[in-house]
Amino acid sequence: xxxxxxxxxxxxxxxxxxxxxxLSGREDISxxxxxxxxxxxxxxxxxxxLLVRGIQTGRTNTIGVMVPVNSDTFLANIVAGIHExxxxxxxxxxxxxxxxxxxxxxxxxxxxxxxxxxLVDRRVDGLILRPVEDSASDDYLHEIHDHHLxxxxxxxxxxxSHRADFVGTDDYHGGQLxxxxxxxxxxxxxxxxxxxxxxxxxxxxxxxxxxxxxxCPDVQYDVCQNKTFSGNPDFVRSYFATHAMPTAIFAAxxxxxxxxxxxxxxxxxxxxxxxSVIGFADLPFAEFMQPALTTIxxxxxxxxxxxxxxxxxxxxxxSSDDDAYSPVQIRLKPELIVRQSTCALK
Length: 346
Fold this sequence. Notes:
CATH superfamily of the largest domain: Response regulator
Strand content: 5-15%
CATH topology of the largest domain: Rossmann fold
CATH architecture of the largest domain: 3-Layer(aba) Sandwich
Radius of gyration: 26 Å
Number of domains: 3
Low-confidence stretches: none
């Protein structure tokens, strides 16, 4: 049975109002009374009713977190970083996420927007969102705006019209690093297996890559765009069946590099000798691929930490003045990790 303020007051011979002030952290109570109330509350295993406190203060200390972890270690590390910072500041994450199948239909019959509404209905203090896609219409997140809730997008950016802060990777710079590496090795026939164009991550990686490729007019360059980041073997196979073999391949992420390895092996081409392959992310399996994958390393744990700290700062410094709201964008610089899957052109 839950312990009430009335019971604590009876044990300490003070008023219910005094107990309430002590337990809510008010400072206008003597240290002696405060210590006595806190000790009795501890002895009686008192737990505060956070629902009531939320009604009184207008804050629930819960953050909606919509990051689809599943088996993706990159996104799982973002969530780990979010949890670490929220925990330190006495916030609790409330997790929901939406996913689409490759045919575009929503899994579990719940759209991303419906899940956002569920979190808003539960009075979260803010929302950290990894968008399924970043081309949402201007009124897509209107309910978040109407409630003046801070919104931080991670990994994939939302348009500034959504008043959304962003924390992610400088994907443009990562694409540049990949291009500079391959060109520096002497490669002039290069293919980019790109991710879906409806995500900012895929677009920026491609744009950064091509910004460097365009500086070398002697490069034979081709791009093949996939509908997902998952690494579809049929997608890779169909490309090689109809195109000349390049000397170097930039895969939009490490998952897409895996079927490239498989297909090249099936065609008796040696990765890191006949064809160079570079990925993006530096997922845990990358260094154990044969040969170990050269890739662009991201820092998902730090993305999560910075996103959580950013939303806490927004909550603690909240303002209902929409005109004064200036979205913050934090893009962490990635790092080139050179392994055995890339080599100088022979």
